[in-house]
Amino acid sequence: MSSVFTKIVNGDIPAYKVAENERFLAFLDIFPLAKGHLLIIPKKETDYIFDLDSEEFMALWQFAQLVAKAMDKVFDCDRIGVAVIGLEVPHAHIHLVPLKNMTSINFEKPKLKFTQQEFEEIAQKIRREV
């Protein structure tokens, strides 16, 4: 059974995409901790990030770095935080979260809500910098 992320890759579910190449995809998290919180995934469905082969693993992080540097240009934040948890969706993914402080990346805090237009504006700002 395909993960929700595979359905996004295949175009079966819409997403606010910010960057994409033949192997990886970056899109906004629809339950964000901060404005600009996004996910980086390999297009190849792999449950556990450490099951990626070494080359794919390193390339995923290089793609994440490219996107994080674009985010740094867009958001007023101190850092772009990184989290790899992998429990909520059985598809390897990296969270990139603009940080103001340590609580910015607390996954237990209430999630932010944005309109469809706000999500698209956020995605567009990042896309311009990638």
- Tell me about the largest β-sheet: 5 strands, antiparallel
Low-pLDDT stretches are: none
In total, the number of strands is: 5
* Integer-rounded radius of gyration: 14 Å
CATH superfamily, called what? Answer: HIT-like
Instruction: Tell me the structural class.
Output: alpha+beta
Physical arrangement of strands within the biggest beta sheet: 1-2-3-5-4
Q: What would you say the CATH architecture is?
A: 2-Layer Sandwich
H and E order? HEEEHEEH
CATH fold node name = HIT family, subunit A
Shape: globular
Question: In whole angstroms, how far apart are the ends?
Answer: 32 Å
Per CATH, the class reads: Alpha Beta
Tally of distinct domains: 1
Please count the helical segments: 3
Based on the structure, what is the oligomeric state of the protein chains? single chain
| Helix proportion | 25-40%
Q: Roughly what fraction of the amino acids lie in strands? A: 15-25%
Round the mean pLDDT to the nearest integer and report it.
96
